[in-house]
Amino acid sequence: MNKEIKKWFSLNLGNKKQSNYGCSESKCDKHRLEKKEDGISQVFDVNMNRRQAFKKITAGLMIGAGAVNSSCSVVSGEENKEKSQIEWEEYFKGNYKLMSDEEKDKTVNRLVRSYELRNGKKLNISSKGPEEDVLFGYAFNISKCQGYMDCVNACVEENNQDRASQMQYIRIHEMNDGKGLNFGEADDSFYHEVPAAGHFYMGTQCFHCDNPPCVEVCPVQATWKEKDGIVVIDYDWCIGCRYCMAACPYDGRRFNWSTPQIPEQEVNKNQHYLGNRLRKKGVMEKCTFCIQRSREGNNPACVDACPTGSRIFGNLLDPKSEIRWVLANKKVFRLKEDLGTEPKFWYFMD
Amino acid sequence: MKLKLNISILLLAIIMISCKNDQKEYHNIIDKIEAKSTDYKRDSTFSNNQFEKSDLVQVIDHETQFYVENRKNRIESYECSECHDKPVSQLQTENLGKKAHWDIKINHADDKTMSCLSCHIENDMDNLHSITGETIDLNFSYQLCNQCHNKEVKDWKGGAHGKNISGWKTSRVSKLCVECHDPHKPSIEKRWPARYNSQMVDERN
To answer: What distance in Å separates residue A94's CA from the closest CA in chain B?
Structure first.
């Protein structure tokens, strides 16, 4: 059976006699049809054992009781009813990867409405998909980077990262001249006048590998590689097991140990479902090449913010793009190339 | 004969099966990029962008084509000849006071290499001038830089040096050399980082 279609709901847990492994053509087709089904049937049409069933029922009951309580209550207002209706539907929605365009629109609208009910402000959440003939790539000039950290600031503001834990997707490593790329001796929390003599600077973040190990290990397929090469996370499907964090050889992923805190006036309201929309406690997040910007044709925030021009972003499938010129004309390298992860993030020197 | 045929069929079958994993269709990302490359057309109308095409100047090189913003439109007191209607030596004697750019000090290479007259010429203040006395338009000032920094200009034309300000999808608009490097003191000064992550330090100690 192809890995692609081995979803948790098709594993047929509980009922071992009807094994799905080594399925015939017709059976596989059936699974493909199942993919199209909506969120509720994804959750309900699953064979499960008694223990799982109890868990589901209890969780469902708790939400349901809340919903029924407020929706049938004479005291609570229309807004509360709507809130619990949204909560109910959000709870039973499916994996984003399997949603139809209509379902994507619906969940986006629910998220926008939910934020409006809570904060009175309108978000602009996009669910824009990948474009044909586009594969994003990134290049980083280690001779140019001076450690000014403007990229980190821009990233935090753009991507609504938790201010309380000072979460940052980008790390800038201050390396010692003459010691090569020695991450062990590098300092990624420096604070002194830069560039410091005898040092050079190197930024790391998610490299959007073409063969991403984080995607491979996710037990619920909450993270995957999009057609345009961006590795994304469905924050509502992530169970927070942090396997991906352990699997990433580049320290590219971050975990929300607590509910992210962002002052209301600092929330970037221009969001993407797979990008910078507000996260919750217990889910993974990481750089998405600013999917909300890059899918609209803009550069990621770090590229725009860099005062030195060390950061280059573009379409790898466009032979005339700047990134392709760098690959063709500069001596480029990537980190841990021998792992076969095929990062789409190249380093080069002047 | 039959055995040979059987073996070759078997071999063929093995090869076919072993290559059938569509996840690993390409050996590496470079193969994939090369195989899938198209003549992607970047949007040259700047429809979804902050730029007005009329305010851009096209840089044409035999390899690349891109744009820079019209510099002359943005220099505050252009044209220079509006004030510089007489030779500098004469203006200096007229006691006009400190009106404009009186504080410029050249900190660019050394005295043997650079003086005001390496780029400016007294009887044509509105343009720049190369070593050979050729006129260079202020919008194309990179041609002047190219006299010494030809490697940097080559990288800039290719896209490895400098800064793309239009995004990856529309035609490329780059910053001119002088938009980052003050031609009179081109090196970029040291400063403090924009941010300090105290949490990270706390967690590690």
So the answer is: 24
